[in-house]
Each structure stands twice: as structure tokens, then as C-alpha cells.
From TrEMBL:
The keyword Transferase applies. It comes from Lawsonibacter faecis. This is SAM-dependent methyltransferase. Residues 5-129 form the TsaA-like domain. One of its GO terms (molecular function) is methyltransferase activity.
Length: 157
């Protein structure tokens, strides 16, 4: 079986903030998204795509406060069999005609390929009582609180 994934656009990150710039053929797909305050962005860890990164199955001490080793599926590491990332971002503005979606923040680098956008809906995306390992229980409880958290002291990758 063969699968085809198409790049819909790119992340733009710079002094003027964060935005998604869609290719012209996907701009019509934005209709109605402006009514949602948040969007789930599936994007490609393009800076970590290569045979060595795709071969990683375990990360040694990926988190400062975490265990000595974790399987890659128990991490947010960019080194994985398919370097696909998922980020929830605030939609700050939108220009459907130009195919632009302004974001409050996204943890992607400038030029990262965008694979898909999905509206954030609490009925499908929110878990009221998540169960987490103790080593990351001190992490923020929401995307909003994450902006003020010092993430630099958490990751080893």
C-alpha cells in the first residue's frame, strides 16, 4: 500500500510573529476556520528528517526530570519513524484570500512544512483528567499556561 502526503503550506516565524502560509490551491479549505479560536497543526519536523533520525526507537534521558530512557512514542522528540509533529495554536487572525493564518505561537521553525489543519474542539481534543507520569506532572495544565513556563529546563533533545 502506498500513501501520499501533500504539503499544504509552510510555517512562517519571524519578528512579526507566527503564521501559516498556505499554497493557493488550499486556501478555500480555510472557510469557516475563522470561527475557531484554536487550531491543531500537523507539521513536518523537516530539520530532523533523515535515515538516522528515522531509525531512532528509544531516546536516552530525553527529559531532564524523566527516566533514563523512553520509547520514542512516549516522547515529543523530533527523531522518530515519521517526523510528524502536532501543535495546538491560537488563531489570532486570518486572511482567507491570501491563505494566511496568524498564530499566537507554534513550536515549529520557520519554513516547516504544514501537512494539515484541524479545528480544536473540546469534545474531541480536551481530556478533563489526564493521567501523566510523575516526572512531568509539574508541567503546565494548559496551552495558555505553557507560554510562561520555562521549557528550556525540561528537554534534552
Amino acid at each position: 500500500m502506498e500513501y501520499t502526503v501533500r504539503q499544504l503550506g509552510v510555517i512562517r516565524a519571524g519578528e512579526d510573529g507566527f503564521r501559516i502560509a498556505l499554497e493557493p490551491e488550499y486556501r478555500a479549505a480555510l472557510a469557516g476556520l475563522e470561527e475557531f479560536r484554536r487550531v491543531n497543526v500537523l507539521w513536518w519536523f523537516s530539520g530532523c528528517d533523515g535515515p538516522d533520525a528515522r531509525a531512532v526507537r528509544r531516546e536516552e534521558k530525553p527529559y531532564v526530570h524523566g527516566p533514563e530512557a523512553l520509547g520514542v512514542f512516549a516522547t515529543r522528540s523530533p527523531r522518530r519513524p515519521n517526523p510528524i509533529a502536532l501543535s495546538c495554536a491560537e488563531v489570532t487572525w486570518m486572511d482567507e484570500a491570501e491563505g494566511l493564518v496568524g498564530l499566537g505561537y507554534i513550536d515549529a521553525e520557520d519554513g516547516s512544512p504544514v501537512l494539515d489543519l484541524k479545528p480544536y474542539t473540546p469534545s474531541l481534543d480536551r481530556v478533563e483528567s489526564p493521567v501523566l507520569p510523575g516526572w512531568c506532572a509539574h508541567w503546565p495544565k494548559s496551552v495558555e499556561a505553557s507560554g510562561d513556563f520555562d521549557w528550556s529546563g525540561e528537554f534534552n533533545f
